[in-house]
Amino acid sequence: MAKRGFKVVGVSYRLHITPGVFNESLVKVADNSGAQLARVIGVLHRKTVWRRVPGA
């Protein structure tokens, strides 16, 4: 996992949720900790796809 476009200073992340067609939510999260990603996906309780956003 290459850290491209990541801010390793503190905990800075972007969260962008867009509703899908088949009750799916597209979650774009850029964070320096995997725990934050798991937390966001766990809260939604839906089929989510997380991608790293460059230049976050």
Summarize the structure in short.
The chain is α+β, with helices and mostly antiparallel strands and 56 residues long. The protein is built from 1 helix and 3 strands; from the N terminus they run E-E-H-E. The chain has one domain (1-56).
Secondary structure elements and their pairing?
Layout: E1 14-19, E2 25-30, H1 34-44, E3 48-51
Parallel strand pairs: 2-3
Antiparallel strand pairs: 1-2
Structural description of this entry:
The protein is 20% helix and 29% strand. A hairpin with a 5-residue loop joins β1 (14-19) and β2 (25-30). It has one domain. It has 56 residues and is an alpha+beta fold. A three-stranded mixed β-sheet has the order 1-2-3, covered by helices on one side. The chain has one helix and three strands; from the N terminus they run ββαβ.
